[in-house]
Each structure stands twice: as C-alpha cells, then as structure tokens.
Amino acid sequence: MSLLKRNPFGHIIYLKKILIRFLGIITHQRYKGFNKLEIEGSEFIKNLPDTNVLFVSNHQTYFADVVAMFHVFNASLSGRTDSIRNVGYIWHPKLNMYYVAAAETMKKSLLTKILAYAGSISIERTWRSDGKDVNRQVKMSDISNIGIALNDGWVITFPQGTTKPWKPLRKGTAHIIKKYKPVVVPVVIDGFRRSFDKKGLRVKKKGILQSMIIKEPLDIDYENESMEAIIEKLEYAIEQHPSFLKVISKAELLAYEEENKQRKFRV
After folding, report:
1. CA-wise closest residue to 74 among 133, 130, 156
2. What is the DSSP letter of 203?
3. Residues contacting residue 132 through CB under 8 Å, at least 6 positions apart
4. Rounded to whole angstroms, what are the CA distances from 261 to 48, 52, 207?
C-alpha cells in the first residue's frame, strides 16, 4: 500500500489504518473487560460483498455503538464468530468502512475530528442544529457522499438520527436504499445507554451486558416498494416500530428515564 494513497474522500488510507488500530486497542476493554458484549449473527458479515452494503441500526450513544460495530465487523472478517476475543483482528482492519454522523458533532473537538477521519460521512441534519429544531432542505451533496461511500465499501447508518428510542425513522434512509440499491443489514443493539454516557466516550457503569444482534440482509424490492413500506420494514428489523413499545424491557425504560433525569439536572 502506498503511504500516500487516499480514499474517495481524500483521507490518507495508511493514516486511517493507524488511527483505527489505535482506537481499536484503547477501546477494546470497553466491550471485553469493563463490560461484556454479547454478539449474535456475526456469521452473516463474512458472506457480504466488499462494497454497497448498508448497515441500519438503532442508536444509543454518539460513538460507543459505531466503535463496537467496527470491532465486531473486523473480528468477524478475521474468522471470529460472535466474539471479539484477542484484539489482534484490528491490526488489519477493513478500511473501506464508513458511518454516517452529524457534521456539527464531528467538528466539536480534536477527538471527534480523529473519529471522523477514521471513517465518518458527515452530513448536515435537516431537523436539528446546535440543539434547536430546524427545518431545512436535504443537501444533495450529503446523499452523494453516502453513495460514494457505498460504492467504495460499507456504510453504517442510524436512521432515527437520534439516540432517543422509538423515534420515527428518517425517510432519507429509504431514499438512499431506493437510489443506490445496497445490501441492507439490520443491527439491533442494547445496553450501551446503560454502560456509557450519551456521547459514548465515558464508561458510566461497569459490569453491564451489552448486546449486538446482526440480522440477515433484508429482502427489498428496490423498484416497486414505496419509501413508506421500506421505512416500516426497517422499523421492524431494528425493533423500533411502535408495536415494540408493548414489550420494551423494564431495564431499558429505567435507563432511559435515568438518562433524562441526569440531563435535566445538568441543565
């Protein structure tokens, strides 16, 4: 690999590799030490094509969720099944893996800029900015950048656009699916809200069981299914459809209520 070779976004691939190695090593204990990450379905990862794969997931923290996915996906590609034992898998990470994140979040500090270089596709949120509700047009360059990333590799997205559970999915995700026709892989996570702060940078509580379920790729009729039908299919797949509120775990509900109390106290 040329030391100066760049990906489609102009990032030096070798530097990205070094950053992912570093971040992987220093975060491994968050999922295989302080807390335990229970994984299911990682065997599906090994059978995916190298490009045009879109992972859709519910969202519980800004960064801990996606970092865990980087661990699980790379471990699976290295031959591990439902395990991130022995962090050596991060030495040769998949370098064409990206995740969608809010541009304002990725510009806030040196650490977030480093995390952005490791693989974020930064987009301007159309519904929220600087803590305030807004209503603005989708930037077509954001959609195009996601398409560029899909053409180059894998993309992780959180279609609710928020860490709050049970919020409606953004229609932009369905638009991307219909436009670029990726393999769509649902991921369901739990426990991250209880073990990390909202940003996912600080371990809030140890000894928490985190879980990640990777499901089979969805069967989608890209030409004939409506955006509404695709959104509903995604809601069921990542277990965020309103019907799931009837079976929400007591622990999850208590964790969310506690998070809201702490946020109000800080304000």
Report:
1. 156
2. B
3. none
4. 41, 40, 22
Q: Model confidence over 172-231: pLDDT tens digits?
A: 899 999 999 999 999 999 999 999 998 888 898 898 899 999 999 999 999 999 999 999
- 137 by Cβ neighbours in 10 Å (0-12 / 13-18 / 19+) ranks as exposed
Q: How many helices (H) and strands (E) does the chain have?
A: 9, 9
What are 250's two structure tokens?
């007591």
Please answer whether residues 150 and 180 qualify as being in contact, where contact means their C-beta atoms are separated by less than 8 angstroms.
yes
Angle between helices 171-180 and 227-237 (to 10 degrees): 110
| DSSP 8-state symbol, 164 | S
Task: In whole angstroms, give the CA distance from residue 161 to residue 166.
Answer: 11
Q: What is the CA radius of gyration of the chain?
A: 18
Separation of alpha carbons 202 and 204, rounded Å: 6
Backbone φ and ψ for 179, nearest 5 degrees, come out as: -75, -45
Q: Helix or strand or coil: residue 230?
A: helix
Quote the pTM value. 0.88
Structure tokens at 25: 């090593």
